[in-house]
Design goal:
The complex is a heterodimer of chains A (about 260) and B (about 260).
Chain A lengths: L1 H10 L4 H8 L5 H8 L2 H18 L16 H8 L5 H11 L3 H16 L18 H13 L25 E3 L2 E3 L4 E4 L8 E6 L5 E7 L3 E3 L11 E11 L2 E4 L3 E5 L5
Parallel strand pairs in A: 2-9
Antiparallel strand pairs in A: 1-3, 3-6, 4-5, 4-7, 7-8, 7-9
Chain B lengths: L4 H5 L3 H21 L5 H27 L8 H20 L1 H9 L4 H12 L4 H10 L7 H15 L5 H5 L15 H15 L4 H12 L4 H8 L4 H21 L8
Helix pairs in contact in B: 2-3, 2-4, 3-4, 4-5, 5-6, 6-7, 6-8, 10-13, 11-12, 11-13, 12-13
The chains are: A alpha+beta (about 260), B mainly alpha (about 260).
């Protein structure tokens, strides 16, 4: 029965959103398994790599020097944040297509904005003990664990969003954005990871709590008090190899309710 | 939200500065440390960033403050500023002597490549032509690219590696590089023609994702695509157009 299902699944080739990042170096065990048995996809990957290799050759003709036409940092920041409409974006896009220097600023800004998100100093806040209805929260978290995730194209749960780097990082599931209650953190599993560690930061970037577990969720202890209405951040890392940790994105959330 | 803007607009820039630096000091240090691990460098660049933000009666901050609204993350602008100031500081103020010490340990050929590509910011092709004409080096373009890769790897290792990497365009790693810049130029003309049918946004998505190796989620955000799937689909379409164009021109991969 299982073999029959496996045979049937092989008939469908991975969609571009899986094939492209895999061909360009991202690790993706599900696509890798398919490609190992599929000559059609192997040929397709070779063709993707060949075209990408030619495209990458263009770097040898470019210079990374500033020109009077280079946009200022406000425009770059608005572009990175996706705040430019089609009309205001058009001249910026036209410039970026010809300017390696500005593309490198765009790339660096995107990276730095993501990496330094917790470093913004916030004014000191008064901490308040906050309790949660544990039963309801545990049920919600369990539901999250049991419901299989689907790709945004409705593909099989086994083919998840491919990673952006060579390592597969755990994907934070909950909490995200505004939550009415919180007693645990839930994330997706990572192949071969036997341990996960989690850090919770307050708005000032200080580690408010850290823990390590072998599960893909962890319970927030009563000793950690969170205030409603203010931002917190969390990140989880999976140990993919001995002493090598793959980190998730930093996730912001806040507890519903008036800020105190 | 940005408490420093009030005092700035009310004519008390020093009070505004105190609030600003209290809030963003860690972000500025964090961003600088992504480029250099040398504590002296970090402090020097931090001082330069403060100076640049304060100069001309806080012009830079005032210009940004005038456009801040709740939906516009101020920190994104600030990291772009810190990035540019960090790179400029290394390049112009006392970057050259320090960077030259990085090159001092390299073989002579790689020292010249370092000078042309990192210090003079010439393109790879320009550096190759200068090596041949000015320095009398006799090597193929493919051999030059290998030397360039070795130079790039050596120069971007170590504590200042992060900032040095920002001074030059990384070499493209290809198993079968063109033997001559003229062949490369021909390839690029062909590619440009193949990509003509794509919208500029899509061409840029391909450039940012494939060539500059920017993460797909950041490409999607910048270009207003609904998700990363759109980026992958546009890249797939663009690469298919390139292949079709090559086949139409009767060129196979091995020919290039």
């Amino acid at each position: 029965m299982l073999e029959a299902i496996a045979r049937r699944r092989r008939v469908t080739h991975p969609a571009p959103e899986f094939l492209v990042p895999y061909a360009l170096g991202a690790e993706d065990p599900a696509t890798e398994r398919h490609v190992a048995d599929c000559a059609t996809c192997r040929t397709e990957i070779e063709r993707i790599q060949e075209a990408a290799g030619l495209l990458r050759g263009s770097v040898s003709l470019e210079r990374r020097s500033e020109t009077p036409a280079c946009p200022d940092e406000l425009v770059i920041a608005d572009f990175v944040e996706g705040r430019l409409g089609p009309e205001t974006r058009a001249p910026v896009v036209a410039h970026l297509l010809t300017c390696a220097r500005c593309r490198s600023v765009v790339k660096a800004t995107g990276r730095l904005a993501a990496e330094t998100a917790v470093a913004v100093q916030a004014p000191p806040r008064s901490w308040r003990r906050w309790s949660v209805p544990l039963g309801a929260a545990a049920a919600a978290a369990l539901l999250l664990l049991l419901v299989p995730r689907r790709g945004d194209d409705g593909s099989t749960p086994g083919l998840r969003e491919p990673p952006l780097t060579n390592t597969v990082a755990p994907a934070p599931i909950a909490p995200r954005a505004t939550v009415t209650r919180l007693d645990r953190f839930v994330w997706s599993s990572v192949p071969h990871a036997e341990r996960y560690r989690l850090r919770l930061y307050d708005g000032a970037g200080t580690v408010a709590w850290r823990t390590e577990t072998t599960d893909t969720f962890t319970v927030l202890p009563d000793s950690v008090a969170l205030s409603p209405g203010v931002s917190y951040f969390w990140r989880v890392e999976g140990e993919t190899e001995w002493r090598r940790w793959a980190a998730s994105d930093l996730i912001e959330f806040r507890l519903a309710g008036p800020r105190r | 939200m940005e408490s420093w803007i009030g005092p700035l607009e009310a004519g008390d820039p020093e009070a505004a500065w105190d609030l600003f630096i209290e809030r963003y000091r860690r972000l500025i240090f964090g961003a600088i440390r992504r480029y250099t691990g040398d504590p002296d460098d970090v402090m020097d660049v931090f001082a330069r960033v403060c100076e640049a933000l304060r100069e001309n009666d806080f012009t830079r901050l005032r210009r940004c403050a005038a456009r801040v609204d709740p939906g516009r993350p101020f920190s994104t602008w600030l990291v772009a500023v810190v990035h540019n100031l960090t790179i400029d500081w290394f390049r112009h103020r006392d970057g050259r002597p320090r960077l030259s010490t990085i090159a001092a340990t390299l073989p002579q050929l790689q020292q010249r490549i370092f000078e042309y590509v990192f210090l003079e910011q010439r393109s790879h092709v320009e550096a190759y032509e200068l090596l041949r004409s000015r320095d009398g080096a006799s090597l193929s373009f493919g051999e030059f690219l290998k030397e360039l890769s070795a130079t790039y790897a050596a120069a971007t290792a170590g504590r200042r590696g992060g900032v040095t990497a920002e001074l030059a365009i990384p070499p493209s790693v290809s198993p079968d590089p063109p033997s001559d810049p003229a062949v490369l130029a021909e390839q690029q003309t062909l590619l440009a023609r193949a990509l003509e049918s794509l919208a500029p946004d899509d061409r840029l998505a391909v450039q940012l994702y494939v060539v500059d190796e920017m993460p797909a989620d950041q490409v999607a955000r910048a270009l207003g695509y609904p998700n990363t799937k759109t980026v992958y689909n546009r890249v797939y379409r663009a690469l298919a157009a390139i292949r079709a164009s090559l086949e139409q021109a009767g060129i196979k991969g091995g020919d290039l």
